[in-house]
Amino acid sequence: MHDYTHVIVSKSSPRPDRADINDSRRQYDCYIRLLSELNLETIEVEAGSSFPEAVVLEDIALVCHGIALLLKPKAGQEQLVKSVKQALENDLGQTVIELSDPDAMLLGSDVLFTGREFFVGICETSNEAGASAVAAAFPEFPCTPIKVTKGAQHLKKYITVAGPDILCVAASKEAKELLKRMEREASFSYQTLTVPEEEAANCLYVNGTLIHRAIEEIPQSFKVFCEKIDFSRRSICFSELSKISSGLSACCLLLRKPFTL
């Protein structure tokens, strides 16, 4: 379920007059390079906006099993949405569906796909109508709305997939409450890996490899990953990019291109 052939990332031109974003640029370049090392073909799309905000792609679309649900763009993201849609349709053979319900609110950072089912965090940025749109777009998978505690952030800030049927969960009160609600409503059962630092909870599982934050950013959680994960791991610095996103999942769109004869 987490085997991918391609990754979409934002092509963002360097800004030599912005010395304050050099660290973000280096982290982003390392991020893209790491993904390409995991047998992914990289598709770069024109952002039409400035770095680093332009690299956050998970709120542009949800992509699963050849279907791409385009979400409502934020102001200034029209060019990015257009570029992503073109890449999905023309280059990658995905069937694109647009979020048409005027009442629907939905961000990709509020949507967790475990490989077996979807969970949608109901909060200020995603609502029940948005969850219904996910269910309609991907009818072969169960889709469960999960209420996020008031004042908490996006679902994938607290819980992500760390391996086959393994959920990586922050140790915070908000994360524990979310996990309880998910376990109560889930159609499948999962193992959980609890990490002490909240910023460690957002990781990526790609083609048999777990990608998580570097030891200097999450020293306690890094030890947990070393002790508990017995398959391939890679770590990366993400401190600057995490300031504008939910974490490692935010800056790419992972997908499998349909096989054609």
TrEMBL record:
SUPFAM superfamilies: Pentein (SSF55909). Residues 1-20 are annotated as: Disordered. One of its GO terms (molecular function) is amino acid binding. GO terms for biological process: arginine metabolic process; citrulline metabolic process; positive regulation of nitric oxide biosynthetic process. Keywords: Hydrolase. InterPro entries: DDAH-like (IPR033199). The active site is at residues 154, 251. Belongs to the DDAH family. PANTHER family: DIMETHYLARGININASE, DIMETHYLARGININE DIMETHYLAMINOHYDROLASE. This is Dimethylargininase. It comes from Pieris brassicae.
